[in-house]
Structure formats: C-alpha cells, structure tokens
Amino acid sequence: MGVKEDIETSLASKHITKIQDQPTDRSLTNPKKELTKIAASVPSALGGRKNYHTGTVLVKDTYITFSKGGAKFNIPVHPGAYPATVSNTPEVRAGEEAAHKAKIVEYETCAGVVQAIKDHIVTSVDEEWIAEINHEVMGFTNKTPIKLLEHLESRGGMLNFIDTQEIKQERDILWDSNEHIVTYFNQVEQVVKLLDRANIALDETKLMNQAL
C-alpha cells in the first residue's frame, strides 16, 4: 500500500465517541477533542511544524491562535508526478528530485489523515444528520473535515441547564502537562464556544489568567 493508505489504516482503529440521535454542541465536544488528538498523532512540517495535522480539524483562526509563530495550516496540493523543471547538473537534479519526493510524501500523509478524520466523522453520526451534504456521485469527496463538523454544528440542538453546568466545569479545568497543549486549548475554545452559543457570559481576562 501507499503512504495515504497506510495512514488511513493506522488511524482507522482510533476511538471516536458515537453521537446518539441529533448532534448537539454538547455531544460534539468529545468527538472533536478525539479527532484533534488523532490529527496531532501524525507528524507534519505543515503549519509551523509544532501541531502536526491538527489544522485539518481546527478552523484557521483557532489554529493560528494556538500555533506557535502564528503559522497557517494549508492542506497541500499534489506536486505532480515529477518536478516541473530540473537542473542538468546531476548533483543538483538529485536534490530537486529528493525534495519533490518529500513533497509527495507530505501530500499523501496529509491526504491520509484527512480521509481518516472524515471517515470517523461520518461513522460517528446517524446518516440522516449528514445526508444533506452527501453528494449522490461524489459523496463527501469535496468536503473537508472542518466543513463536515461545521455542518453538524449547524444541525445542533440547544443546551439545557445541566449541560451548561457541566460545560462550565470543563471550562475551569486546569491543563494536565501530560496532555498535548493544543488539545487543551482546543477543549477550552470549544467550551467557550458552547457557552457563547448558550448566551452565557464569561470573564475572558479571568479565563486567560487561568490558562497562563
């Protein structure tokens, strides 16, 4: 198998919480954390090199906020079967070919992560909640993991009182140094988003001081 297929196979067995019935802000929290962790498990030089493939799950602004150096994460395009131009000097040409091969590996690795994440999202919800964007011919081929998650969020139900109290507790949880810092910040960001959608105000200064 190729690099893409190997990545898909290696990530297929990762655990994702199944969402029962209609997706809600609350029920999407754990799956998104799990997807971020999966993406962070595959090394990558993309997006500043620090956060691996988490940019396939986190929206751009969120990724930039928590990416050291403020780097953007861009899903690479296929570089082509062979370099467009190569030097006539054997030594230089060999270097150009090696660099091109590395780009192909980078592309296939990211493609494998994207596909695995999409597969997990699709299988974590009942078909009815995602059928609207399941093209009759292309399926989910033209949808990114972020777009799939945004669609599910748009179909989400409202939070009740018990939900909001539990979410507040998650908001105030301290960072465990054994956990990837990106995973922690993503969790806090998602909790803040949930509370905002429930029209619950928060003290951003207090939240920042707690995180620091």
| Gap from first CA to last CA | 44 Å
Number of helices: 8
The total strand number stands at 0
Query: Fraction of residues in helices?
Result: 40-55%
Radius of gyration equals 20 Å
Task: Work out the count of structural domains.
Answer: 1
Largest sheet, in brief, is:
none
Following the backbone from N to C, one meets helices and strands in this order, namely HHHHHHHH
Question: Helix/strand-derived class?
Answer: mainly alpha
The dominant shape is globular
Taken as a percent bin, the fraction of beta residues is under 5%
Summarize the structure.
It contains eight helices and no strands.
Provide structural commentary.
The chain is an all-alpha fold and 212 residues long. It has one domain (3-158). It has helices at 3-12, 25-39, 60-66, 90-124, 145-154, 161-171, 181-197, 204-211.
Layout: helices, strands, pairs:
Layout: H1 3-12, H2 25-39, H3 60-66, H4 90-124, H5 145-154, H6 161-171, H7 181-197, H8 204-211
Helix pairs in contact: 1-4, 2-4, 2-7, 6-7
Using brief descriptors, characterize the structure shown.
globular, 212 residues, 8 helices, mainly alpha
